[in-house]
Amino acid sequence: MTYGLTPQGFNKKRLADITAEEENALIAEFGDINVQPQSVFGQFIGVMAKAFADIWEEMEDVYYSQYPNTAEGVALDFVVALNGITRLPAERTSVIGVATGFESTLITAGALARQPSTNQTFYAQSDTTITSTNAVLTTVSVDALASQIYNAAINGNSFFYSLPKIEFDDLFVTSNSIVASINGNELAPVPFNTDSQTTIDDLVTAIEALTEVASATARIGLVVNFDIDFVASNSIVATLNGVPLSAVPFNSDQATTIGDLASAIQADASVTSATVTDTREITIVPVDEGTFLVDSIITTGGASQPVTIDQRIDIVPASGYQVTVDFVETTGGATQPNAAISVLQPSAINTIVAGIVAVMNNGSEPVTATDNLDGTFDILANDSEVSYSLSISTNMTVQSVSSPVIFLASEFGVIPAPIGSLTEILTPIGGWESITNLKAGVTGREIETDAELRLRRQNSINILGAATVEAIRARLLQEVSGVTQAFIFENRTMTEEDILIIFSADLVTSNQITFTVNGTPLPTITFTSTHLNTMQLIEVQLEGVEGIDVVTVGGTGNRTLTVEMNQGYEITITASPVTGGASQADVNITGGRFPKSFEAVVQGGTDEDVANKIWETKPAGIQTFGNTNFTITDSQGDPQVMNFSRPTPIYIWVDVDLTLYDEETFPSNGVSLVKQAIVNYGSTLGIGEDVLFQRVLCQIFTVTGIASGNMQIASTLNEGDSPSFGTSDISIGESEIAVFSLTRTSAQVV
């Protein structure tokens, strides 16, 4: 027989073969000798044959170390390196902690926080300052109604909101009579009284007498007009932002005097420029129009005193009231000043807050503002990885700031960091009040095993390719740091895939829901008669949308709407939360991949890295699809929006009653061990893997002393929903992932 390298591979000599060869060789050399195992020659043969057999074993190992399916350890590292692959090192879980505290609080590198549910600790990766210029959440209060314009700037983009304002374009004259209507109530006419200033003061007094008005103040706009020229001995005092400037005396003539006044106004720190734009007119450009006020310009002395023509009344609503100025009309007299009424009509502080919130949410900045209904509002970044810079006018105050801080798990390995799990501060730092995470962390991993490395190499053999499903998946797995799973699904047809709208429970009396199709809200649907009737109302409504072919009600309990599209149409459907009624079902909308599109479902890695890799590998002219998007810049400097999906979490609940086995010892912490075993198993389930009831149940037997278990499981779309337990397997969709947690796992001995 041929040993060593042969056309059929490596053929090693076994111990029996070597022993026989040595016996024959010694007999040939020394004649008829005793080679029995207990003899001297037999003992010698045994020692030498074992050494030779070990050498052959080593040679066989060297042979097989050259192939990926049989190499191990470092040898496998060398083999896969030929394909440009390296073993993935152990990684720590990374999570963006949202640290809340006082402005300018420094979270030092190494500061510790903990997950109470698992006792896993995390440390701050680097020094980070809590500041409103790097915020993901701020709480702002409206403090005063003295200033009439409110300004909050996000990333330098200002959002203004103002109180009710009445502006007149001329002076009041003899025989004028002014009638104002506020909140539908017409006030008594205000007659001309002595001069224009006295008359407007009388109108202010009449408005202030209303219950819904806290104050009304006569002011001047940013264009200041005088009714006549200045004359000798005039002295002009301008009051800006409540502070009187130095008096400006008459100087030679009208042009010189109004120029001196413009210079005095421009010298104020709140003014960018003040320009004489007519012989009796000054146009003011403030540093911040949102907080700038011209309170008055008063002329004294001289044979006559010019007064300002452009006048306005600012109205501050009383707390709890809304003020709407319906109209202001002037009758009688040689001229009748016209009144312009501001279109913004808020009431007191709470309505000011509501107005600012509405203006922000109508803007394009990546934030969402929320009215807290207590005189404060929150500004939340739409993505906790993308912070914003906030500055506000002096009539508002930042009550609290939350800035993003990157935390790393203290230990390497698979340490999940679901949303809202990092909540306990371990390192006391003055000014650091709380910590949480608004997004799930990027889960770490143990060092890649040989089996995992072999599988990844097999999945990555198309690593240099692009534009195919296998190539895109392979490159996401191999080239994007932190990616642990990736699946690619495509729609090759010219028709959008069906959209499934799934309700977690029946609709009930008083429930309401609003669907939005391609950005346009449809009329709100209100519960009618029965759950089925209400679903049929939704069916009819959606079928009336252009591009939607057929909508079908079905599924378990008639809780699923299947939406089919006409060829060539692309439909996106979103739904508001169900409101009203004794209970509110959750709504989960899936499917709907556009014609000629693909969806990458990716776990791990940053949004930016994933988006860049998809752009590098996607086919030209083919759409991307998914529940997440990130805008990258291509080599030509053009923005490209890459869509992909993060697996939708399906929250798993487990409740198990344990019956103990008398002949074994159940540990004192056995219940905790059972819960941890179930959660550990759940963490091994990947994207699209169903939760099989029996496989979950069998985890309890990894703990000694258990005879049997009576278990129920459930799933919810939201972590805080109430579960409906049962004993059936839980189906997980192709773009979903089951999420287990100790807080949703209960066990008890019965």
Give a short summary of the structure.
By secondary structure, the protein is an alpha+beta fold.
Mind explaining what this structure looks like?
The protein has 750 residues and is of the alpha+beta class. Among the domains are: 61 residues, no CATH class; 181 residues, no CATH class; 80 residues, no CATH class; 93 residues, no CATH class; 101 residues, no CATH class. Helix content is 21%, strand content 34%. It contains twelve helices and 49 strands. Strands 3, 5, 6, 8, 26, 27, 29, 30 and 31 form a nine-stranded antiparallel beta sheet that branches. Strands 15-23-11-25 form a four-stranded antiparallel beta sheet, covered by helices on one side. Strands 12, 13, 14 and 24 form a four-stranded antiparallel beta sheet that branches. Strand 17 and strand 18 form a beta hairpin. The protein is elongated, with a radius of gyration of 39 Å. The relative contact order is 0.11. About 1% of the residues have low confidence.
Q: How many runs of DSSP E, i.e. beta strands?
A: 49
List segments where confidence is low: pLDDT < 50 over at least 5 consecutive residues. 343-347
Beta strand %: 25-35%
Roughly how much helix do the residues carry, as a percent range? Answer: 10-25%
Largest sheet: 9 strands, antiparallel
Backbone structural class = alpha+beta
Q: What does the overall shape look like?
A: elongated
Give the N-to-C terminal Cα separation: 67 Å
Quaternary structure type: single chain
Please state the average pLDDT score.
88
Number of helical segments with 4 or more residues = 12
Radius of gyration: 39 Å
